[in-house]
Amino acid sequence: MTQAYAWCMEEYRQVVFMDVRTIVMHDINGLVAGCEGGDGVGLCAVATGEDLPFYKVDPGVMVAFPSKDRCEDLARIASMPRFRTASCAKTLFNTYFTYEERMVVDPRFNTITFETKTVHKLKDAFVIQYAPSHVPSTARADFSILFRKVDRVVDLFSAELKNRMPWHVLYATLLTPPTQEGEAVITSSAALMKHFVSQFALGKIPWKNQAIIYTENAYPEVREWLVAKGGHAIKVPSLLCPNPRGARSKYGFTKLQLFGLKDWDVVVHIDPGTIILDDITRLWRACPSEFNLCLVEEPEHKPEAHYPNDGVLVTRPDTAFYRRIMNCRKRFSPSRTPCETDFFYRFLKPQGYGLLDPKYNMMAFDPYRRLGFVGAKIIRTDLLEKGGSREERSFLDAKLDEISELSLQYNISDSDSTTERKTGLWFFLP
């Protein structure tokens, strides 16, 4: 019955009370705006469905209008033995406040899961009231979905306070079956493991936020290794590019599956053909909320065209968006490779995706580059021969040595490091 003391807080014009068993799902400023005092009104609340047409109000969510007289009356009544249980609050308020002294607001401000005559669906509710002891209502699928949504919001807030990574953010790398000798460079399992070690040690991404997105049975030993560290392995169906330029670009469209990973709020894809050099924990939030995709454009095509590069992608999974791109992909015929970047360019257009800071995907072949490798957070390893001073290459060499040293702590063999630096994942100019 502590709700009764809301009327004693005379320093406030209105006091909003919400039961601990309520969850706020949307903006509730309208609750205060819709509850006007005056004309003797002392209580504003929702008339619950099962109490209609009698207009009894439920105190789970209510707005009180403090006054000295009501404070004294309610404090005296609430102290009576028969009103000392929480279940008596509804009886007390509906008895004490006459119909003229009550104001009723929209039922979406207090949608009760265990009520048999709810007016609105849970997805439309502003505030949801539930009872943990009422198993049927809390076991409903729609209730579980909403609870997971709230869990994500709470986790995000908690992560901000504790300066940690939210659990619903994923830093992933797509792995497809290795290409055949002669078609493209084969990336070794050890090199891939080093990629994830650098993401953990230098990029500061926790193991639990790392993942391998894979198709068919690509690199089972690497998947098993990452899962043992606390990461994830998520299998997706292959999406093949029509008329690919070699086996390496065959699976390019599979990256579109990132948008279908609805268990995650944000999925950051980092190509294995990159070197992670610095803290990238803020990368996931660098994409404005109105975009499902953010990336760095290839400067080689500017200023005539704004063409995307798929080395680093920040994606926001969304069911409707995923269906739309899947339908469009069926009608799409790429004019250049990689087919997925051509798809982003022609389907989304530059206005349809957000741009990331180039530090998150620095390309040595960028003819307009003004920032040295030492200022980058992620560097693409392809076409390094097109750019980079000897000092920059020495800097990269030192970083690769550091990554190799870190990898030894995880029992990752360094026997093929020389080969890797000249080809494939750790390409480097001698």
Automatic annotation (TrEMBL):
InterPro entries per the UniProt record, alphabetical: GNT1/Glycosyltrans_8 (IPR050587), Nucleotide-diphossugar_trans (IPR029044)
Molecular-function GO term, any one: transferase activity
Keywords recorded for this protein, A-Z: Transferase
PANTHER family in alphabetical order: GLYCOGENIN SUBFAMILY MEMBER
Name the UniProt record assigns to this protein: Inositol phosphorylceramide glucuronosyltransferase 1
Gene source species: Hondaea fermentalgiana
Source organism phylogeny: Eukaryota, Sar, Stramenopiles, Bigyra, Labyrinthulomycetes
